[in-house]
């Protein structure tokens, strides 16, 4: 039996609305690397069109807390201070890496900094939309948040921008295909490192 080459961990952070999910989805489709998205757990409600187990594992707060107590999470955070939790499951990451996959964590800055301090040696990318005005425009156009949620996301975005220096690469998502090409090149260059 052939042993697969070792996997890599990739962290993608950036303000809500920057286009992380859009870019990551396209990257997985078109970059010729064994990429896979780590499906996080969350206590937030599914949006229209989201499926349990695909975008997230949607859990009750009780179930999430039980998993946290059991140590099932590599990291977990209350993002946006609205009482909703998000967490990366150890198992998702371990299984992917063991199979030689390049596992992508789409996580907030606090969670990312915690993983950066581990021995997992992630490639770290921070995606941003170019300006705060553009971010607000995208969030409003997406139309998935209440006004309270939207304001919390914009406030957190301003904070998250201050952490850009913690990341190896800053990507401006002004154009999805261009951003995807840039990230794909970065990942290809890091092959073998
Ligand atoms: N720490 C941590 N943050 C996460 C995780 N999953 C998602 N997030 C963060 O939570 C934020 C909100 O996610 P979501 O509610 O899906 O909204 P969206 O990013 O605006 O589509 C994202 O921008 C991510 O940065 C996770 O497993 N851990
Ligand atoms: N380069 C871009 N230019 C314009 N709109 C974009 C771009 N990238 C993503 N979007 C749109 O912006 C919104 C937020 O993108 P999304 O991928 O949901 O962001 P995030 O995952 O960072 O919260 C979506 O409606 C998406 O279609």
From TrEMBL:
Essential for recycling GMP and indirectly, cGMP. Pfam families: Guanylate_kin. This is Guanylate kinase. Its EC number is 2.7.4.8. It comes from Roseimaritima multifibrata. PROSITE patterns: GUANYLATE_KINASE_1 (PS00856), GUANYLATE_KINASE_2 (PS50052). Belongs to the guanylate kinase family. InterPro entries: GK/Ca_channel_bsu, Guanylate_kin-like_dom, Guanylate_kinase, Guanylate_kinase_CS, P-loop_NTPase. PANTHER family: GUANYLATE KINASE, GUANYLATE KINASE-RELATED. Residues 7-188 form the Guanylate kinase-like domain. SUPFAM superfamilies: P-loop containing nucleoside triphosphate hydrolases (SSF52540). It comes from the Bacteria. Its main location: cytoplasm. It is an enzyme of class 2 (transferase). It is found in: Cytoplasm.
């Amino acid at each position: 039996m052939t042993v697969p080459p070792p996997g890599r961990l990739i962290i993608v952070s950036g303000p809500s609305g920057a286009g992380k999910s859009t870019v990551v989805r396209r990257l997985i489709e078109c970059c010729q690397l064994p990429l896979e998205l780590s499906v996080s757990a969350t206590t937030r409600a599914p949006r229209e069109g989201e499926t349990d187990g695909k975008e997230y594992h949607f859990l009750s707060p009780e179930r999430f807390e039980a998993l946290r107590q059991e140590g099932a999470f590599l990291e977990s955070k209350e993002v946006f201070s609205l009482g909703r939790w998000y967490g990366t499951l150890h198992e998702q990451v371990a299984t992917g890496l063991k199979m030689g996959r390049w596992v992508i964590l789409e996580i907030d800055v606090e969670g990312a900094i915690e993983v950066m301090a581990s021995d997992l040696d992630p490639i770290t990318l921070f995606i941003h939309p170019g300006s705060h005005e553009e971010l607000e425009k995208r969030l409003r156009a997406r139309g998935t948040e209440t006004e309270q949620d939207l304001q919390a996301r914009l406030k957190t975005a301003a904070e998250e921008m201050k952490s850009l220096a913690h990341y190896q690469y800053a990507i401006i998502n002004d154009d999805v295909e261009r951003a995807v090409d840039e990230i794909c090149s970065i990942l290809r260059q890091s092959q073998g490192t």
